UniProtKB/TrEMBL annotation, chains A, B:
GO terms for molecular function: oxidoreductase activity. It comes from Pseudonocardia sulfidoxydans NBRC 16205. Coiled coil: none annotated. This is NAD-dependent epimerase/dehydratase domain-containing protein. It holds the Pfam family Epimerase. The keyword NADP applies. It comes from the Bacteria. Keywords: Carbohydrate metabolism, NADP. InterPro entries: DenD, Epimerase_deHydtase, NAD(P)-bd_dom_sf. Gene3D superfamilies: NAD(P)-binding Rossmann-like Domain (3.40.50.720), UDP-galactose 4-epimerase, domain 1 (3.90.25.10). Residues 1-193 form the NAD-dependent epimerase/dehydratase domain.
Length: 318, 318
């Protein structure tokens, strides 16, 4: 697992260790790679923690080997940072993905590679409803890097180097902890900060639509994505996960319904043109029937996402 | 110009030197880069020949500078070779394109970059008619590398590093000289060898459809592509050139009409599964109305392509 010290990586690692098996095979070893030491499963004899750069081919060569059955490739420089630091984004998001695929090819075990991609692969003049087959027309460097990595994963799959599957993640919310540099970070802040008694500023107008998924279902989808039989995937390895399409104004209203007006009053609005420009590239409506037909699941609505955060994370923050 | 020692590069170089201007600016210097010395314009004081690897960042840094106004990026490992030699294709077709864009960005002159892409960016379950906006679903490593380079060019254009335009070339035929390693090479051989008194073997069935353009119009399109005002391009920088859609059987029939039955009798048919598998990914029908609206032109039919070859190249071969 790359990006294993991240929020999603940590939850996925704990889930895999708790399950003890994946696709009917036991989890004998879980290798957690990140630039800082991953803390999930500390003390568990099945865990090997590797600290290093995902774009370091020597490190990848040591990390992926003939015993590697599944690779979760979560490491990424997020959208806002990839836009601000072009070379860094190219190195981690494009080179990192490419070198990981090369390492899998060299290892020879044809691992299943679960790659987390993003709605940022879409943009520009989009159809009213986005499907798995909508053209990739990214309007950010992050989206460009993810789209290239998707194409490379498909080619390595076609060549038999890996058995790849691309999961296009909606914005994962609510993330606990500190804000990150993702342009979509406010989608977590709008719930997390008010619930922590802190005011938050939303940098886009209330009518901006987002496509969101709780951490619960993000982790469930990653596991399910790894377990999908290749024969069920057909011609395309990329799947838009079943997110909830919701406006930012509706997100604030859901917070008020679930947590009350006093909490919701801590949300304020001040437009940030840089974030707004990125948000303008996000699609409004989605057809995720293919994901659902494959058995992948999402949240019922944003109220459920707020409640999931309060159940899963809020006790630890208080 | 990268790939300047190639067939198309040589013709384009001679055309540019003959014109002496491009988009209203005089051609003061023409830098011809390739792994072997380009011979076009030999002795012309405006020509600087650079021998080296297009994936060598130091060389690119020396070649592209603040005076660079237009870059023609033609260098590529062709489809058959990129499929057989994966690493080589990745290095030349993907790294070469990426490093060239980085060199343009470092030079700071925001050059127009004319990138030759390919129908190989399409494949799989295609619509009946392919347009400029059809999703990129390559089914070969070559197509994957071209698609990634297209995406990177679009991002560098959006960021203001270059003013890019992608010309998706139909199969350029008839190429004079020796066969190359392109899977589509037979589209030249089917005319060139019989006219030279040599028998030729076509590796696909007559009903396989191709999308073809003469060298004349390929060069004209490259020049016109460089001269297109950015404002005319709108949201997408990629243009499918106005090729002729024709079956391989019709190509043989055109040869017979133009050059006679004795010449056409030198065409024989023997299927090659490797070539056929690649050919199966080529689309059948095209909507190139956007290219035409932008003033780009192509051949009337395959008879005209055979005649163009006989006029432009045959005297030199005899």
């Amino acid at each position: 697992m790359t990006g294993a010290a991240g929020f999603l990586g940590g939850r996925l690692a704990r889930t895999l260790l708790d399950r003890g098996e994946l696709d009917g095979r036991s989890v004998d070893e879980l290798v957690l790679l990140d630039v800082v030491a991953a803390s999930a499963g500390e003390g568990d004899p099945r865990v090997r923690t590797v600290v290093g750069d995902v774009a370091d081919p020597a490190l990848l060569g040591e990390t992926v080997d003939a015993r590697t059955g599944v690779v979760f490739h979560l490491a990424a420089v997020v959208s806002g940072q990839a836009e601000a630091e072009f070379d860094l984004g190219m190195r981690i998001n494009l080179d990192g993905s490419r070198l990981l695929l090369d390492a899998c090819r060299a290892a020879g075990s044809v691992p299943r590679v679960v790659f987390t991609s993003s709605v940022a692969v879409y943009g520009g003049d989009l159809p009213d409803v986005v499907t798995d087959a909508t053209p990739l027309t990214p309007q950010t460097s992050y989206g460009t890097q993810k789209a290239c990595a998707e194409l490379l994963l498909a080619d390595h799959t076609r060549r038999g180097h890996v058995d790849g599957r691309v999961l296009r993640l909606p914005t994962v919310t609510v993330r606990p902890g500190k804000p990150n540099a993702a342009a979509s970070g406010f989608a977590s802040g709008i719930v997390r900060e008010p619930l922590a008694g802190v005011t938050t500023v939303v940098p886009v107008p209330p009518e901006v639509r987002m496509w969101v998924l709780s951490p619960r279902y993000a982790v469930e989808s990653l596991v399910a994505g790894a377990e999908l039989a290749p024969g069920r995937l057909g011609g395309s390895r990329a799947i838009n996960l079943p997110g909830v399409s919701v406006s930012v104004g509706e997100m604030a209203a859901a917070l008020e319904r679930v947590a009350g007006p006093e909490v919701a009053a801590r949300v304020s609005w001040r437009r940030d043109p840089a974030v707004e420009a990125i948000a303008a590239t996000w699609p409004g409506a989605w057809d995720t029937s293919r994901a659902e037909a494959l058995g992948l699941r999402g949240d019922a609505d944003f109220d459920a996402i707020v409640r999931a955060y309060m159940e899963d994370d809020l006790p630890h923050n208080l």
